Amino acid sequence: MPVLNPTMMIGLPLLGLVLAAPAVARSVPAKPVWATGTFVYADLCTDTESGERAGRRIVLKRSPTGDVLSYETPSRSARAEAVTVEDATRELSFRVGGEEGGFAFRGTLATDALVGTVEDEAGTRPLRLRRILRSHAHEACPGEVTGSIGTRP
Q: What is the CATH number of the domain that holds 73?
């Protein structure tokens, strides 16, 4: 009967594990899920002449107990109704009602922006709000540019 040295006695079981591992371990596709937390998208600015604030902010708070979305403008703050977030496609839809008129939004959440369309009594128009990662002072609103010559700040 052949005698195995100590190195082979340890090496053979390890070799068996290495060869059997692919049969046992299978990769499982990751399920795309947005993390819980607060996601802020905004285009708030300050008018340089009047000092008035303009723009809007959408705050999406995600938690295991449900999603809450608020819509804010300088003159309005409302909690959205019928908030739907599709984790696989990152699609977002919601409605905002109230005395000042309601609207519906449908779009996509991206790492850098919220892009979609707003539909109200005036029709449908595009909306793009950049993602705000940390609080900072409001920027000056871009000046009105007419014609094809001119630059926006």
A: 2.40.128
- Between CA 63 and CA 20 the distance in angstroms is 40
Question: Distance between CA atoms of 105 and 113, rounded to whole angstroms?
Answer: 14
Domain that includes residue 64, residue range: 37-135
* Entry pTM: 0.68
Q: What stretches of the chain adopt beta strand conformation (E)? A: 37-42, 45-46, 53-54, 57-63, 66-73, 76-79, 81-86, 91-96, 103-109, 113-120, 123-132, 139-140
Spatial distance between the Cα atoms of 38 and 61, rounded to a whole number of angstroms: 4
Considering only CA atoms, give the Rg of the chain. Answer: 27
Q: What is the pLDDT of residues 124-144, one digit of tens each?
A: 999 999 999 877 676 888 776
CA dist., res. 96 & res. 73, Å (int): 12
